[in-house]
Amino acid sequence: ASWMLPRLIGRARAAEMMMLGERVLAAKAFEWGMIHKIVADASLEHEAFALAERLAAGPTRTLGAIRRQLHAALEGDYSTAMAAEADNQRDMRGTADATEGGRAFLEKRKPEFKGV
Q: Quick one: 75 and 21 in the same domain?
């Protein structure tokens, strides 16, 4: 947390959180960019499962590469991040899911990804 938090919300806000130990309410976390969405307690489980289903239906290998790329972009310099992105694009371009995505786009239909 001490490495990532300042990069996410800035040094001053991270220092406030870490030194004062105060609760951060959802509205403030949203305002600071710590979260991207606020949901009501009653709909949390439904929203979480809906998101999980949406991600699982996607091109999972590519989503994994995107996640690794996001982390790498925060840790390295620009040149390293661009080289890693080029590697990821090369690796993912040859997957069955990439082919399916292109076909689905051309055929104007929803893709059916298999995670390969």
A: no
Range of the domain at 101: 41-116
Residue 73 CA to residue 8 CA, distance in Å, equals 13
Per-residue pLDDT tens over the stretch 16-43: 999 999 899 999 999 999 999 999 999 9
Share of the chain residues as helix, strand and coil, in percent rounded to the nearest 5: 70, 0, 30
Can you tell me the distance from the alpha carbon of 111 to that of 62, in angstroms, rounded to the nearest whole number? 14
**Domain check: are 2 and 53 in the same one?**
no
Tell me if residue 35 falls in helix, strand or coil: coil
pTM here? Answer: 0.73
pLDDT in tens, 41-87: 999 999 999 999 999 999 999 999 999 888 888 777 889 888 989 99
Q: Which of 7, 69, 2 is nearest to 34 (CA)?
A: 7
CATH number of the domain within which 93 lies: 1.10.12.10
What does the alpha-carbon distance between residue 113 and residue 116 come to, in Å, rounded to a whole number? Answer: 8
